[in-house]
Model the fold of this input.
Amino acid sequence: MSLLKIKNNYQNKVESKFIEPKVHNIINHNSESLKEVNNSKHNLMIGEGVTINGNIKSDNEVIIQGSVEGDIQCNSITIDNSGNLKGKIKAENMTVKGKVEGEININNLLEIKSKGNASGKIFYGGIQIDEEGKLAGEINFKDSNNKQDEFKDWKSL
Done:
């Protein structure tokens, strides 16, 4: 009986280094320039080829170029051409260039660009659909003066 010896082909170590970004000193230390640095908004971008399953909550803009399956609550959301989103979305503004499906609640402007596709149960404050943009599903205007029960199912008596 012969014994088989496995050879390790990965003898060289692979090292990766994290390079911290350099922070430039602020030459003028007055309150205006410090306020501008502290109030800068940071966006979240899900890059092309990235797939995320889970929920996202952000106070700023979320840009999706990859695929997301989950709930998103943010100020503004953009689904780029390669983007694909499936889930519950709650935002002030939304721009759709790719594909979004689910329960969509947009307080202000829902903007669907020429190759954009939005489907599902949709509440919007304002809407703009470019030529060749697609919108399908249960679509409801959201009157800011009249509070609606978003995403509540009708119950029979």
Remarks:
- The helical segments are 31-38.
- The first helix runs from residue 31 to 38.
- Residues 43-141 form one domain.
- Confidence is low (pLDDT under 50) at residues 4-40.
